[in-house]
Amino acid sequence: MRDLSTMRLGWEEVEAEKTRLLRQMTIQEGISQLLALQRIFEPQFRQTEALFRPEREAYLVELQRRLRKLAEWTRKQRNGEPSTIGGDASGAA
Predict the structure, then answer these.
(1) What does pTM read for this prediction?
(2) How far is CA 66 from the centre of its chain?
(3) What distance lies between CA 65 and its chain's CA centroid?
(4) Burial grade of 29 (CB within 10 A; 0-12, 13-18, 19 or more)
(5) What is the mean pLDDT of the chain?
(6) Are residues 56 and 43 part of one domain?
């Protein structure tokens, strides 16, 4: 059996490669991957819908908030206005 530290090293290499590949992905490719995964897991989503509904709704509310913030930041960038993603001068979110 392989030594645990050797297995960890191998896993770190896999994670590094995964990160590298994800960073090369365009937004469109990422969305396509997300939608493909959603199609694959849709039956499980439906089966667990009631169990995880509050968590999913909270996630969607947060996602909408972040998308609104990104849209506002993008609008300001296009108009040449000073802006930060965090909404304050320090840039903290």
Answers:
(1) 0.45
(2) 11
(3) 14
(4) exposed
(5) 84
(6) no
